[in-house]
């Protein structure tokens, strides 16, 4: 009677070890991509940094674009759980807010938290996209996902009757899409030396002014 339990235990242990190895590889790849650049980061370098074999990198995650995609996905989500950001409780709670200013404030806070994690990797992806069709497709997918998120917030603001009449809903979504581009965060914080808090305050005020009725 104990044999199935023992098999389940060993199976669970192997799965946990595989997940730990995958996290180690992706973490090493993300660090090398940001520090050394996409071109200079090789599978061998990732394997060495993670303390695994080259074969294990391919088996656990894949090639360079797979490593970058996984690192980006985890950076956006904040973890490696297989749950889309849009389906997470925090996002559902945000979209359920009835106060338009509170909604924008909470959304900007969430976007800036993502920016902190993803800005460096996005710079890497933009470089990789110049010479790799798969990376280029990944960049476009990232932009589309951000547009979907911005459109969802704008739709909620419209449902609350808070969206300004100065722009169409489509244009409002475009404004929100551009304003939440991690590149903007990167320019202000990394290039111009703004603090994360200063940027968050500015972005909240900007989107409130641009999207809400007076």
Helices and strands in order:
Layout: H1 3-36, H2 43-50, H3 54-60, H4 64-77, H5 89-95, H6 100-129, H7 133-159, H8 169-179, H9 182-191, H10 196-211
**Shape assignment:** globular
**Percent of residues in β-strands:** under 5%
| Low-pLDDT residue spans | none
Distance between the termini: 70 Å
Query: Helix and strand string, N-terminal first?
Result: HHHHHHHHHH
Q: pLDDT average, as an integer?
A: 91
Computed over alpha carbons, the radius of gyration is: 20 Å
Question: Helix share of residues?
Answer: over 70%
How would you explain this protein's 3D organization?
This protein has ten helices and no strands. With 214 residues, the chain is an all-alpha fold. It is globular.
In brief:
The chain is mostly helical and 214 residues long. The protein contains ten helices and no strands.
Keywords:
214 residues, mainly alpha
């Amino acid at each position: 009677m104990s044999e199935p339990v023992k098999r389940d235990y060993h199976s669970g242990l192997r799965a946990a070890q595989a997940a730990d190895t995958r996290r180690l590889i992706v973490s090493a790849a993300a660090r090398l991509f940001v520090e050394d650049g996409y071109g200079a980061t090789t599978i061998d370098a990732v394997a060495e940094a993670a303390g695994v074999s080259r074969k294990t990198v391919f088996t656990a995650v894949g090639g360079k674009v797979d490593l970058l995609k996984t690192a980006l996905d985890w950076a956006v989500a904040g973890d490696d759980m297989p749950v889309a950001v849009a389906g997470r409780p925090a996002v559902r709670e945000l979209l359920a807010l009835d106060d338009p200013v509170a909604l924008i404030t909470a959304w900007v806070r969430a976007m800036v938290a993502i920016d902190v994690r993803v800005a460096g990797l996005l710079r890497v992806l933009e470089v990789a996209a110049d010479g790799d069709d798969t990376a280029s497709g990944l960049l476009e997918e990232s932009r589309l996902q951000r547009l979907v998120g911005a459109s969802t917030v704008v739709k909620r603001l419209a449902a609350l009757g808070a969206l300004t009449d100065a722009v169409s809903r489509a244009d409002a979504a475009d404004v929100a899409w551009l304003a939440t581009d991690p590149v903007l965060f990167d320019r202000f914080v990394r290039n111009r030396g703004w603090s994360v808090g200063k940027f968050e305050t500015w972005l909240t005020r900007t989107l409130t002014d641009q999207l809400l009725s007076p």
